[in-house]
Amino acid sequence: MLKIAVLVSGGGSNLQSIIDDINSGALNCTIEYVISDRIGAYGIERAKKAGIKTIELDRKELKSDLSNTILGLVKGKVDLIVLAGYLSIISGDILKEFKNRIINIHPSLIPSFCGQGMYGIKVHEAVLEYGCKIAGCTVHLVDEGTDTGAIIIQKVVEVKEDDSSEVLQKRVLEQEHKALPEAISYFADEKITIEGRQIKIKK
Ligand code: GAR
Question: Which residues form a coiled coil (predicted)?
Fold first, then answer.
């Protein structure tokens, strides 16, 4: 069975969607570790409640050693690393060791509203400011860039005229909670073929 590590920085609602789908039998994998890059992230509490092994790291203390520390913890222990609201940049050897084996969820339709500094509520504020009529989320592979890896899955929502950024965020988040477990299932069920930027999913 596919073994995964889930990395979080905050509330962990995306982590919760993975836990729920595993528990319901919809997703066929095991979470070996939940790792946070900051002390006190609520995602860690969710993992503890689900009986999952947790590791809390301090990004301020580890600085440029953060990715290497994570590599040391997961190397040889997991098949896939899932960034579920993880806000530090992944860099260094972990990108080679886990090539095509790190995925991230981003709350926009990439390549719009992504890249450095574009995360969380800021994304939804920018979408509204621009006057977009649609928004959505993207699950993609992680490479050397920020939000530049090949796209695995995207889900679209409507932007309504009276939306606040919080209301839009909630609508997108509902789709994230479907998209991320679905993307993991492509790896778990060996349905995914990766050829450069072109990702194909067996029906
Ligand atoms: C999610 O909306 C996720 O897409 C976003 O942070 C939120 C975390 O929520 N990630 C990024 O913006 C990454 N660039 P959660 O902690 O409740 O899963």
Answer: none
Query: Selecting from 3.30.565.10, 1.20.1090.10, 3.40.50.170, 3.30.43.10, what CATH number does the domain 2-201 have?
Result: 3.40.50.170
Pocket of ligand 1 (CB under 6 A): 8, 10-14, 43, 84-85, 105-107, 119-120, 173, 176
- Residue spans of the domains in the chain: they are 2-201
Cβ 27 vs Cβ 185: under 8 Å: yes
Nearest residue by C-alpha to atom 11 in ligand 1: 119
> For residue range 2-51, what is the model confidence (pLDDT) as tens digits?
999 999 999 999 999 999 999 999 999 999 999 999 999 999 999 999 99
Number of H helices, E strands in the chain: 7, 9
pLDDT digits (tens, 9 = 90+) for 94-128: 999 999 999 999 999 999 999 999 999 999 999 99
